[in-house]
Amino acid sequence: MYDSGKIIPGLLIFVLFVTIPIWYNRGTAQAVPEIVLPKDVESCVLPLAAIRSDHMKLLMTWRDDVLRDGDRSTFEIEGKQYQKSLTLTCLQCHANKEQFCDPCHTYVAVRQPNCWDCHFAPVE
After folding, report:
1. What is the sign of the dihedral through the CA atoms of 80, 57, 63 and 105?
2. CA 93 → CA 10, 14, 88, distances in Å?
3. pLDDT in tens, the chain (124 residues)
């Protein structure tokens, strides 16, 4: 290694530069927000873990089905009928946007979800 005098300091600077976010944010992570779920509802359209990770994919699929394909059919989960609708399905149980939507979206830095570009935000 003829250039070890340049390679080793270069690698150290690279590693330091790449790990700056880890060192800068060390110990400042916020706790995952506690969400108050509706008391009168036993289940959602998907299991809780799936809703937390994939609810936007589900809403986009519903949007494409309803608006682009004209498919306004209902679907059944555990004997209960649901419509493909944010307003008529999701917001029936989760009507408080500030209490239910905003804490998680703020936690994951999704400040303005595009749901409210077309839908009216629930009135508190």
Report:
1. positive
2. 56, 49, 9
3. 577 788 999 999 999 999 998 888 787 777 888 877 778 877 788 888 888 889 889 889 998 999 899 988 888 888 888 888 888 888 888 888 888 888 888 888 887 888 888 888 776 6
Residue type at position 17: F
Beta-bridge partner residues of 75: 82
Residue appearing with tokens 């498919």: 71
Q: How many helices (H) and strands (E) does the chain have?
A: 5, 2
CA angle 71, 73, 75 (to 5 degrees): 130
Give me the amino acid identity at 33.
P
DSSP 3-state assignment of 2?
coil
pTM for the whole thing? 0.67
For 97, counting Cβ atoms within 10 Å of its Cβ (0-12 exposed, 13-18 middle, 19+ buried), the class is middle
| DSSP category for residue 1 | -
